[in-house]
Amino acid sequence: MTTQPATGYDLAQRFGKSISNAWHAGHSQIYPELARLQEAGMVEVVSEGARRSRTYAVTDGGREELRRWMTETEAARTQRSETGVRWFLLAVIEPEDRRIALEQELAFMRLEAERLQATADALDALPGRHPFRATVDLGLRVNAVMTDWLGEQHEAVALDRR
């Protein structure tokens, strides 16, 4: 919405394609949050469509709140990651199970790399440099580091089996 007006459905789709690894937001969260933001004057309805769908845009007050949040508050640095816990616990399962788990993780990371690259390609096809392209680059880099680490762990399991 900061880049262009969107419906709740559009936002759910964008979350799924962009920041779902960092923050999951489904329809059940997005619609109440849009209502709260509208009540607070941070977004406004700019059009209404079929089946009472509403397109929202960020207001000047919403942009100011985003600026304040990004520049004047400290981020909550704690996060829960099932992936992180699973990777931590790799050390306590049997080598054959560890190998299987690592192969599953590597397969996911390959798919994620393909998804990120497709997103990068789509952004590159747009005129100018898209403001989220740098974040996609970060995702590609982080994915590469994680894939390398998983590959090293997989190789170590193979060596342990000899």
Secondary structure elements and their pairing?
Elements: E1 6-7, H1 8-17, H2 27-39, E2 43-48, E3 54-58, H3 60-72, H4 82-89, H5 95-124, H6 133-160
Antiparallel strand pairs: 1-3, 2-3
Q: What can you see in these coordinates?
A:
The protein has 162 residues and is mainly alpha-helical. The chain folds into 2 domains: 67 residues, Orthogonal Bundle (Arc Repressor Mutant, subunit A); 79 residues. The protein has 6 helices and 3 strands, in the order βααββαααα. The chain has a 3-stranded antiparallel β-sheet. Strand 2 and strand 3 form a beta hairpin. Helix 1 packs across helix 2 and helix 5 packs antiparallel against helix 6.
Produce a short descriptive summary.
By secondary structure, the chain is mostly helical. Helices cover 63% and strands 8% of the residues.
* Strand percentage: 5-15%
Measured as a percent range, the helix fraction is: 55-70%
Strand order of the largest sheet: 1-3-2
Strand-pairing-aware structural class:
mainly alpha
Order of helices and strands: EHHEEHHHH
List the domain count as a whole number: 2
